[in-house]
């Protein structure tokens, strides 16, 4: 069974008026368009062509949530919990309404996620940079008291990244935050020029926010079209700008740490934060292949990209969702076929085991994964 599905873009403030519009070849939107959800998550289940929602069809059983994401401004700095942390946190907050602003856990699931860039130049902050590298970056500020203080904190023993983030977000370092932000205007470095430029822009959009200095501790990642990063539980991250396909475990659990007016619970964030430093690997599949896979170490989801130039047959393990992202996409199953306009999707029921793609374009297939969690 093939069911065409669609959804209305969510108008978060960091969204873009042009990125989704350009993808779908329509006029710019009047308000920001940030995310389009293709799934059965109760927060915003997809609409089924002809009436009803995907949740009516699946009973809310999909283990993943597929999205189009379009960012003109940086998202909040955030982490997601492990499944064990989510179960414990959700149970602890049962006395709060599910939509209460002070609630940290909206459900009892973890939220690992993968983002694939649809255009060159997708920018993200992902993971914490090794301390020695950040010490070199801070030399860009010269002999500046706030930067010197931050370097001193980073030279201490123990879990210094956790300690520094606790100071910055906990309101114990307002003078250092203000001084480092002021010093961004004159900081200069050949090695870290791109990082400084991105953080300057973040500072301009988030005046005085301690998250600006936390961003200086994070890796800057730039993705070209078709490249991806996987974000594990506990990994600090913030998408900065660009358009992509995002897939995650079916959860809405977010612990925020800056660059947002929304609820920030610093102790809870620190309790789930993984401060292990290092690069986040970029996946660079062969985009000339008919089917490119993005491997992930979790069982909740799998994602593949299909390059359509004529006819391509793909085996699937349902229930699946096919999202069209470019060109003319037609999908056929055993008993039916549908045209999938760019920016919309089709739900594929579990009884289907293969799909035939035709036309000329690009699509992504989401389905349950196979890796052990």
From TrEMBL:
The keyword Manganese does not apply. Residues 3-130 form the Phosphomannose isomerase type I catalytic domain. It comes from the Bacteria. Its EC number is 5.3.1.8. CDD domains: cupin_PMI_type_I_N. This is mannose-6-phosphate isomerase. It catalyses: D-mannose 6-phosphate = D-fructose 6-phosphate. Keywords: Isomerase, Metal-binding, Zinc. It holds the Pfam family PMI_typeI_cat. Belongs to the mannose-6-phosphate isomerase type 1 family. Coiled coil: none annotated. GO terms for molecular function: mannose-6-phosphate isomerase activity. InterPro entries: Man6P_Isoase-1, Mannose-6-P_Isomerase, Pmannose_isomerase-type1_CS, PMI_typeI_cat, RmlC-like_jellyroll, RmlC_Cupin_sf. It is an enzyme of class 5 (isomerase). Its cofactor is Zn(2+).
């Amino acid at each position: 069974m093939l069911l065409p599905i669609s959804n209305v873009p969510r108008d978060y403030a960091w969204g873009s008026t042009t990125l989704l519009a350009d993808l779908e070849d329509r006029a710019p939107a009047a308000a920001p368009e940030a995310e389009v959800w293709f799934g059965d998550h109760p927060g915003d289940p997809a609409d089924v062509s002809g009436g009803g929602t995907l949740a009516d069809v699946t009973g809310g059983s999909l283990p993943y949530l597929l999205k189009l994401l379009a960012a003109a401004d940086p998202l909040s700095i955030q982490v997601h919990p492990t499944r064990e942390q989510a179960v414990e946190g959700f149970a602890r907050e049962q006395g709060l309404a599910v939509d209460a602003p002070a609630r940290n856990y909206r459900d009892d699931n973890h939220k690992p996620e993968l983002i694939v860039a649809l255009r060159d130049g997708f920018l993200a902050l992902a993971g914490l940079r090794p301390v020695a590298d950040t010490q070199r970056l801070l030399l860009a500020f010269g002999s500046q008291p706030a930067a010197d203080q931050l370097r001193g904190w980073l030279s201490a023993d123990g879990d210094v990244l956790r300690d520094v983030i606790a100071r910055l977000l906990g309101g114990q370092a307002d003078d250092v935050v203000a001084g480092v932000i002021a010093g961004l205007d004159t900081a200069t470095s050949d090695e870290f020029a791109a990082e400084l430029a991105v953080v300057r822009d973040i500072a301009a959009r988030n005046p005085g926010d301690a998250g600006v200095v936390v961003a200086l501790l994070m890796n800057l990642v730039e993705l070209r079209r078709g490249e991806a990063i996987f974000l594990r539980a506990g990994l600090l991250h913030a998408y900065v700008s660009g358009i992509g396909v995002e897939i995650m475990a079916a959860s809405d659990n977010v612990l925020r740490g800056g660059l947002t007016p929304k609820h920030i619970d610093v102790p809870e964030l620190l309790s789930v934060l993984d401060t292990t430093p290092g690069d986040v690997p970029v996946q660079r599949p062969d985009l000339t292949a008919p089917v490119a896979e993005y491997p992930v170490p979790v069982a909740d989801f799998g994602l593949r990209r299909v390059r359509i130039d004529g006819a391509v047959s793909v085996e699937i393990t349902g229930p699946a969702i096919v999202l069209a992202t470019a060109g003319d996409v037609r999908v056929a199953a055993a008993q039916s076929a549908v045209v999938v306009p760019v920016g919309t999707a089709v739900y594929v029921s579990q009884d289907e085991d293969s799909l035939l793609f035709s036309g000329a374009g690009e699509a992504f297939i989401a389905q349950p994964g196979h890796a052990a969690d």
